[in-house]
Amino acid sequence: MHRLSRRQLLPLLGTLAPAGVRAQNQPYDLLIRGGRVIDPSQSLSAVRDVAVTDRKIVRVAENIAPGQARVVIDARGRYVTPGLVDIHVHVYDGVAPLGIPADPNCIAKGATTVVDAGSAGAATFPGLRRMVIQNAETRVFALLNISLIGQSTVTEDHPWGELLDLRHVNVKLAQKTIEQNRDVIVGMKVRLSRQIAGDNDLKALDLAREVADAAGLPVMVHIGDTASPLSSIVGRLKKGDVITHSFHGRPQGILNDRGRVHDFVLKAVDNGVNLDVGHGRGSFAWKVMDAAMKQGVTPGTISSDVHQFNVNGPVFDLATTLSKFLHLGMSLEQVIERATIRPARAFRFPHQPGTLRVGAEADIAVFEMREGDFPYEESSSGTGTPEIRMGHRRLMPVATVKAGRIYGNAAIPVVRI
Ligand SMILES: [Zn+2]
Fold first, then answer.
1. What is the topology classification, in CATH, of domain 6-81+361-369+396-416?
2. Is residue 71 classed exposed, middle or buried when 0-12, 13-18 and 19+ CB atoms within 10 A define those classes?
3. Res. 14: pLDDT tops 80
4. C-alpha of residue 89 to centroid of ligand 1, in Å
């Protein structure tokens, strides 16, 4: 079957005519009008219009006349943010055990830039690049798994993780893969839970550290129910590294036996280690969040870890994870900051996402705040019954723009003039 090339496909997805036909009195390709713009990168939280020309944000101001743009999105009564940046997803669909398709789960839900967190290792990375990164409308980056087989299935049927045998780690091959894919690999990933790494956790982390240091990249470390104490793991991290699943409720968590955040965790945060959420299937415990937040410890970044076993609940998408933090009492501005400019700065992304500053790539998300009763389920240890808390606000993605193009069909009015 003949496949459409990316160049042929893009005009079908987008709604904008080529820039050459823009009339003189219509300086803008697209105007997002009347929404409350929340852009923590410039401490902006106010009703503004956002104008886009040639893929870039060109103006953010009050009252830009709609006739000046060829396409207008009516964002009145809605929230306009930079396209979300989700630094923990699994989108190696059909290959890695947790994989789901990127576009329906990321860009369609407001996340324009995502990081596949270790689905692929050196042996399986070329497929991730060719089949996912090069084809997705979502901007997909990757953390390279230190195990060359990438993620192994860890289910009841097959509880054997990718680091139980360290012969699956090959430092040279990992380094070579990074050198060949510098444009899309933004760091290393190592999963250290007992089922995945057994007693090899510290050794595996040291090997990931060695590769990351040689490449000048950070490490994302997956914690929870590790054979070694968390203090030994955190002691190996440095500025710029990321702890994902920070708020899990399993053994070897961030809380001590008095329910306080360990001093060594606080010290690591002071030293520039990022506490990421990575909600996932086992790593969002209401009680751990309560205890941490009561002590003033909030996540540095909020990511979803959306994958095959949580995309139909309890994670659904990043916006739902953000809504859970609203329920915990964080402001919308604090929550959006942790899903835009902060994750944008967590890794070296070439297109510098997470902002609506003039001159930035026009990656934009539009949300509605729905009111009602929303049961928000935690995902903690897999033991006991997950706690469900009733939330009353839910952030719903209703339109996404990437590089100035509207992705898919917006769920709100779009007018072509
Ligand atoms: Zn994950």
1. Urease, subunit C; domain 1 (2.30.40)
2. buried
3. no
4. 6
